[in-house]
Amino acid sequence: MSLDPKIAARLKRNADGLVCAVAQQRGTGEVLMVAWMNDEALDRTLTTRKATYYSRSRQKLWTKGETSGHTQQVHEVRLDCDGDTILLTVTQEGAACHTGDHTCFDADLLLTD
Amino acid sequence: MSLDPKIAARLKRNADGLVCAVAQQRGTGEVLMVAWMNDEALDRTLTTRKATYYSRSRQKLWTKGETSGHTQQVHEVRLDCDGDTILLTVTQEGAACHTGDHTCFDADLLLTD
User: Fold this and answer.
1) Which residues does the record give as Mg(2+) binding sites (chains A, B) (predicted)?
2) Which of A31, A77, A85 sits opposite B24 (nearest CB)?
3) Is residue B38 part of a domain?
4) Rounded to two decimals, what is the model's pTM?
5) Are B10 and A46 a contacting pair at CB < 8 A?
6) Which residues of chain A have pLDDT under 50?
């Protein structure tokens, strides 16, 4: 498999060949996490409908939940206006965060009304 | 002004000294846009409650809406589990996208159920 050339042509990758990816819970709209994708991660996400990212620390693809079971079933994929960010609408199984929190943004509130 | 050292110590900046920032509409939960912040942009966002980012292309701070009038009033600011992404809950005035779209993710749908 390789990424559809019509999509690949619209991506504006960073120096590491990656685009930013935001995962949002279907229905509630919660922002669950932000990670990175290379072309192959995006292709796998589109074709398998299981959210797949590129780990910058491990320098390899990872399908969300492959070890934890906390998978993300993908419903929608959107590319932003300048081609450097993907927005996924997903159904999150279990916790999105490796800490066990529902989202990666639950623990550290810097400002509130 | 400078960023609270207790917050600055928790940031995990990229090689350019930046963290990723996701702006989400209060109430609807729509993801409006993704941009970047350096320490000063985050400090200004926290202290003025007007979303302020760092432009990588222009290499300077920009307060969202300073020319367009399409400001973002900031209600909540959260830092993610690994310290490299900020989530803003905002009230968007007018269009978030420079194209005139409501969000930067409106125009290019790659996959849907």
Assistant:
1) 80, 82, 84
2) A31
3) yes
4) 0.97
5) no
6) none
Cα angle, residue B44 at apex, residues B38 and B47 outer, rounded to 5°? 140
CATH number of the domain to which B46 belongs: 3.10.20.810
Instruction: Tell me whether strands A85-92 and A19-25 are parallel, antiparallel or unpaired.
Output: parallel
Contact A29 B33 (CB under 8 A): no
- Asked if the model's pLDDT at residue B8 lies above 90, the reply is yes
Binary contact (A110, B28; C-beta < 8 A): no
Class of residue A73 by CB neighbours under 10 A (exposed 0-12, middle 13-18, buried 19+): middle
Above 70 in pLDDT, residue B1?
A: no
Question: Is there a contact between B97 and A82 if contact means CB atoms under 8 Å apart?
Answer: no
Residues of A in contact with B108 (CB under 8 A): 10, 78-81
Residue span of the structural domain in which B87 resides: 5-92
SS3 B29: coil
Q: Is B81 known as a binding-site position?
A: yes
Report, as an integer, the average pLDDT of B34-60.
97
